[in-house]
Structure formats: structure tokens, C-alpha cells
Design a protein that fits this description.
The complex is a heterotetramer. Chain A is mostly helical. Chain A has 10 helices and 2 strands. Helices cover 29% and strands 16% of the residues of chain D. Chain D has a 3-stranded antiparallel sheet with strand order 2-3-5. In chain D, strands 1-4 form a two-stranded antiparallel ribbon. In chain D, 21% of the residues are buried.
Amino acid sequence: MSLTLLNAVIAVFIAICFVGLNAAYLVWCERKGAGFYQRRPGPMENGLWGLLQPPIDGVKLMTKQLLIPGGVDKAIFMVAPVLAMFPALISFVTIPFSETIVAHPINVGVLMIFASAALGGMSLLVAGWGSRNKYAMISSVRAVSQTVAYEIPLLITTITVVMICGSLNLSDIVQHQLGGFWNWNIWPFQKSVGYNLLMPISFLILFVCAVAETNRAPFDLGEAESELVAGFHTEYSSMGFGLFFMGEYANIVIGSCLITILFLGGWSCPIGDLGFFPFTNNVGWFLLKIYLIIFVFIWIRWTFPRTTIYGLLNLSWKYLIPISLFNLLLTAGLLKVF
Amino acid sequence: MSIQETTKQALSELFIDQATDTVIAEPPPAATEESVDQEEAVRLPGVIDQNYDTKGFHLDALVEHEQLVRAAEILFGLGFFIESITGVDWIKEDQLEAVYDFSRYDFELCRVVVRVFIPRTDPHLPTITGVYTGANWHERETHDFFGIVFDGHPHLIPLLLPEDADFHPLLKDFKA
Amino acid sequence: MSQPIELQKDETFVLNVGPQHPATHGVLRVKMTMDGENIYNAETVLGYIHRMHEKMAENRSYPQYMPNMGRLDYLSAMAFNHGYALVVERAAGIEVPERAEYIRVITVELNRVSSHLVWLGAFVLDLGGFTPLMYCFDDREQILDLLESVTGSRLTYCYFRFGGLYNDIDDEFIAGTHVFIKRMRKELKMYAKLVTGNIILMKRLKEHGPIDRDMCQRYGATGPVARGSGIDYDVRKNEPYSVYPDLDFDIPVYHECDSFARYMVRMDEMEQSLRIIEQALEKLPEGPVNPKKKPKIIKPPPGDYYAAVETARGNFGIRLVSDGTKNAYRLKLRSPTYSNMHLFDEACRGMLLADALAFMGSLDLVIPEMDR
Amino acid sequence: MGGYFTELFTGTKSLLDGMWVTLKEFPKRPVTLSYPHESVKMYRRFRGHIELIGDDEGKANCIVCGMCQRACPSGCITLAGEKPEGSKKKVLTSYILDFTTCSLCGSCVESCNFDALQFSNEYNLASTNKEDFIMDLLKRLEEQK
């Protein structure tokens, strides 16, 4: 028992370090990427290629005054950023980075991630409500309706994969896809279900849902800087804002981890385990895959304009949910046949 | 019949019941040598043609202030849109002039200017917001700058000036 | 979609959009009464950057007032200068040499393209897309460099003089303009792919922000706003001035009356402006750019004069009342966005906040010009 | 139903088109200039603040006619001159430009008939001190020599 607890504490500590570093350097990547997409160099001044920018930003955020607007409910106002960060950290506990690197493998890891992701939506509501600001309020209401709408196709798609792999354990799902890229769930032919032509589309649906769940452009209705100033974190300064920021990037990492595990074979080497170093199933492949997905996240963000709330809900209810439901039924049928 | 003639005729009907039958056929002012003040002072209500090349507009209507709304209605019916409303302060004559500019969207070019003279003390005009909704801001602006009160205006509060402004900067006797 | 919703007056709250808000592009304030995210009504509050340019005109001589024009609409300062030059030339009876007229047209049209580029970038930024802004500014930079090499400044040009120009253009400028036109044609295709075709953008603009013909007439809307509502009104065609009658160009008109129509009008106008510039460069005659005889002190005869030009945002009119002295007796500036913005209140009722702000972006507002 | 799938297809295609455009920009070199490290060459006609033109000995060409002062719309030029004994021409003794109100319109340069004024190429004019913008152009001319 105590060993498990210690294990968990160490895991959370490592997760915090990982999340913190990731958040900091993902911001750098985002800014640099934005720069390259926009014909400019991005951060350049601090260190080589601006690599010192994130720590300096961190110092700036930490030394700033934490302003609390007059008349807010202080408890709620203060708890919101923590609530944004906490579920993201929890989720990392179950994510298998490789066969051995996993903090605490849970049999129902998928459920665990979704449970904490749902909690993430809560933080936006709390922040919007606690800020005593009309923009923040509108933003939080938007964000919650968005989360509700996109959790459904996300879950349905995940269930499809879970059915194919026959397990809710994330490690088992990856194990099911080992042995070369042709075994990944993204392809329309599967070992267990034969030909399911909708699998690539399911992957896309999961991807879109991940973008929407993490409140990223083009689904960043919660932030919508040209409409709602800064949305739910309008009133936050200093580390309160910093935590929201870190939470956002942590969520992006979790989202891409989930996509990698469910569809891209997790830590598996794309050409099968050849038995010598880079070509073994190791954590390097996992990280490579998640950063590739994050690159696409950044690419999308700096390409598209923002949708509106009805566009977002239309997409979810008219396209994503019917198609993913159809795929669920199809997969169930195919499972019976093969 | 060109739109200029149609408009002129339509506007002229405003002045028919004014007993002076010479008004309609008033010739365009040929001589501009005499000072504009005298010319404006003797001018009677009516519509006159103007030389577009030198003036920049075609028809010039001087109306009494009770004819103003009717004139706007006529122009609206003929498909004119409102360009602007403004004032001119003729301090020597102790008069304020309100100038309404109208123009057309189609290729029959016709710019119409409607003028009203009102006394400088206690200037009142009827609003034309009932005809042209867009006159709202123009009238508010004119109220800001000249203090002309537009009777019946739905929301006559300062627009460009601060909300507590009680001065009218474009009056010639305004000192900052 | 923004279906007509029964909005309850007693369940509303007031949302102050501006005077400091990212979507208002300046110090415009819109007091929106909202029912949830739907707008019940919107009262525009102007005057945060009001500088009383009209009073300044009464205290400055005619040439001294010229720099003020660039401060009205910082994005198409050239067209505003043109309007002012036109009215004074009309009043004082000054002839303009042909070469000067052509150069005026070239610079005004270049300025129009640059203004539309800023609008495009800022408009897509309003919709949440950041990258096109940077591309637009990159393209605009080429125009600003060209104009800077001729006029000496980048934004408030003050390039026109009564009867002529500040100085002549050189071969370098002509060559640079040809290069720019070639580049811009390519870039317009790129924008069509990146922005115009984008499904998200189309969904946000099509059938949103309706302005019909009747509304335009009542409010006096002009420029791309009117042309997006099926009104083929363009001062350059309807009331030809300068050498526009000699040049072959079309007025893009769209009949959909929505934000997308206004968007398309501006995109097509850039293409047309390039055409105008190309032709004007071809026809550019030799000769002086300033008239041989010009009154030393400009004193127009008493009377009132009117001139209108087509700026990037619509019909800019100037009414000049002269009393025969060297200062104007009264100068009225009729700015296009003033009328265009006025219809916002009526048009935005029942819209969602996001749509209303997209609609506001499609009106292409420049606040200093509105407040004057 | 047909419209449903057409829209799905064209919509997705338009998004991919857009992504292709931005991806093509990704490897290109930036077009910006890292300003404090490098700066653009100013155009010959660039309108900076005005400065006096001197002759070879560094004496100002200005004959103190005051045309520029009268031409200035915002009244930002103050100049004074005196007639030294035995000389016919006035000599400039001070030429102050109040740059805080100058709008760089160039009316002064145009009004000058004696080739005494020109635009400088200065554009690094930011300062936190208001006094920096009250410029003594005569001193500036002397310093240039």
C-alpha cells in the first residue's frame, strides 16, 4: 500500500516536471511555429533562437502581482486555475509512455482520462463564474456547451477502439497494435475486424474532438480573443493565468497522447521491432508521435479562423456524432462476423 | 425627362401654394461677384439649377422649415439617399443655415442640396428621422456643433462631443 | 444560425464592447444590450477620438489644411487628400495637368489596395485567424515602400497639392509598381485559397449581417457596403472625376446582401484597382505635374462647393463654404463609415455576439474618420 | 442528403487547401528585419524632421524671411535673425523646431525659396523626455560640420 502511494507521489512529481517543461517549451514551439507560418522568425532575442524565452516568461509571470478583482468570490476565483491544472496532472498517471514507463497502470485507464477531462470543463465554468466579468461568463457558458457537445463523439470513437482492442487498459490497447505501422488502428483493415473502412475517419473525428476539447483554435470559443477579450481568464494575472496556460498545454499533450495510443500504436516502432536501438519499441517513438500531432495542432491553429458556437455544435451533432455512431455499429457488426 | 428635371418639378410643387408664381422659374444666379451674404439674404424659397462643373451639385432647394419633412419625403420617394446634414453659421445675418445633401445610387447623376434658414437664437427644425433613419446621427452631430434642436428626434444627446457638453464649437462666436 | 428569437427586454444585461476592445479597431464603443449571447440592441457611442477637424479648417488656410486630411482616414489618406484637392480646385478654378491626374489615380489606387489589405487582415483577425494578417501586412509593406519612395512618408502622405502634386514619380517607382502588380496577382490567388474558400469563413459570413437596398438608402451607406447589397454605386463611375472615365474597370457588385458579399466586393476591388494602375501606367503622359500658373494665395470666390471621391470605404464628400478669404468659412466632411456604421444598430439586432462582431468587421471601420 | 456529403467533402478540401498554403510558407525565410540589429536604408525623399542647409563653411543658407514660419499649419517653427553691421543680409540667430506639434507635412520646405531647409533622414526619434523634441536646428547644423 505505502509503496503504491510513494509510487504515485513520485509519478505525480515527475508528471508535474514533465507538464511544466512541456508547457513552457510548447509555448516556445507555438510561438516559433507561428512565426514560421507567418513569414517572421518568432522569438529571437533571449538565448539561441529565443530558447531562453520560456524560463524568462515564467519568471515574469511569477513575479507579477496577482490581482483579485473587487467583489469576486475569492475562494472560487482562486480555486479555478488549480482546477484547470489538477485533472491534467492526474491523467498523466495512467498514460503509458512505453511498456515500462507508466506511473500507475489502471485497468480502466481510458475511463480515468475521460473522468478527469470532464473535470477540466468544470474549471472553465468556475473561472468564468468566479471572475464577475460578463465576458468571462459568456466564455464559460460557451466552453461548457462545447465540452458537452464534443465529449459524446470523443467517447463513442474511443469505445469503437476499445471494442476492437477488447480492453480499457491503455497499455493493452497499445499492445494490440504492436509490430509495425500496418497494425495501427488508423488503417481501414484490422486483425480482429477485417475491413472497417471508417477507421481513418474515426481517427479524424477523434482528432477534431481533441482539438475542441482542449479549446484550441479553430474551436477556441472560450478564449475568442477578438470577441471576448480573453474569455474565462480575462481577470486572471500572474500565476493564475500561468496555471491556466499550463493546464491548456498539458491538455494538449494528453490529447495527443490519447490519439497516439488509440490510433497510432503508442510506443510501437513504425516498422516493427527490429531489435537494435532506434528501431525498438521505446519511449522515443511515443514522444515523436505526440510531438508530430502537436505540430499539426499548431499548424491548424495558425491557419484557420474561429468557428462560432452554432458552427461548432452543427459540426458535432450533424457530422461527428452520426458518423461515429455509425462506425460504432459497424464495428460491433464486424466483430460479430469475424 | 431627366431625373434632374423630375426632381426639380417634384420639389417645385412644394412652393406652388406660396402665391409667388415666379419662384419656380427663378434663374440660376449668374453673377457671383456680389457677396454671398447679400445673395443669400434676398433669395426666396424655391428650387434652382446649379452648374455642376463649378459647384459640384445640380439642384439647390431653399425651403421653409415646415416644408422640410415634405421635401425629404419627396426625395426619398424619388430614390435619393442621404449624404449628410450640416449647418453653417451666418453670424452677420444672425441666421443659421442647415444644409441637407442628397444623392442617388444610379447612374443618373443628381445631387440635391436642401437648405433651411433659421434664426440664430432658439434654432428649431423638424426632424427627418421619420423619413431617413440615417439622419439620426447627422442631426445629433448638427445639434452638437450648432445647437440646432431637431424637434421630434428620438435621441438628441451629444454624439461626437462629450455627453455633458453644453457648448457648440462650430458657432462662429465660440471661444475655446 | 441566427434565427429570429423572441428577445425579452427584462432579461437583458448591458455589455460594453469598447472603447478598448480588440474587435473595435480603435476607440469605438458599442453599448450592447444582450439577452444571453443574442443582441437586443446596440447603441454606438462615438467621439472618443473626435478632434474637430471642421473647426480647424476655419482657422487654417487652404494649403495648411491639407495635412489634416491624412489624419482622418489613416488607411486611405491619399483618397481623402484627393477629395480635398478636388473641392478646392473646383472652387478656385485651378486646372490640373494630365500627368498629375494619372499619377493621382495610380497612387490613390495603390492606397486603396493597401487599405483593403489591412481590412482583410484585420477582418480575418476578427474572425480568429491570425496568419492572413501577417501576409496582408507583408504585401501592404510593398505598397508602403513604393509610396514612401515617392511621397516621403508611409501613412499620412499629404502628396497632393492644389493643381498638382508634391513631386513627380520616377522610373524606379514605375518599375516597382509593375513588380508589385505581378506579385499581388499571385498573392490574391493565395488569399482565395487560404481565406475565401475556407469553409469556416463561409459558414460565418454567408447569410449573416443582412443589409438590403432600402436600408442603404435610409442610412446613406456607400462603398463596398452598398455594393454588397446589389447597388452599383461607385463615385468613380457614377460621378466620374479625375481621369477615371478614360480607364476601363468594373465595379464589383454582389446581390447577396450579406457579410460574404461585402467581403467579395473588396477582394474583387483589389483586382480592379490593379487593373486601373496597370492601365494608368501605360497611358501615363509626359509633362509637368504642377500647373504653370497657379494663384499664390488660394481664395475661392464666395459660394458653396461640393466634391465627392470614392475612398476605400465609400463616398467621401466635402462641402466647402467660402467667403472669399484665405480660410474656409465652413468645411463639412462627409465620411463614409459614419453612415455605414450607423446602420449597425438596426442590422445587428437578434444576432449572436460573434456574428455581430464579424458583421462589424465587414463594415470596415476606421474610427478617426468616423469621429473626425 | 447529397448536399450533406458534398459539403463535408468540399469543406474538408477547403481546409486542406488552406493548410497547404501555410505549410508552404513554413520553410521560407522570414521577410522581417530584426530592427535594432539591422535597419532599412531610408529613401531619398523620406520626410524626417526638417533641418537647415548650410553652405560650405557651415553657415545657414537661411535669410530669415519667415516664410516657413507662416506656412506651418501648427506653428511649430520659431526663428529669429539679426542684421549685423555692415551687412545687407539678415543672419539667422536661432531656429527652433517644436517637433511635438509638427505633423511632417513639409509645407515649410516647400515654401522656402532659398534652398535653406530640407528633410533629415532621422527616424529614431523616440524619447521619454519632452525637451528632446524642442530642437535647435542651428545648433544641429553647427554640430554637423
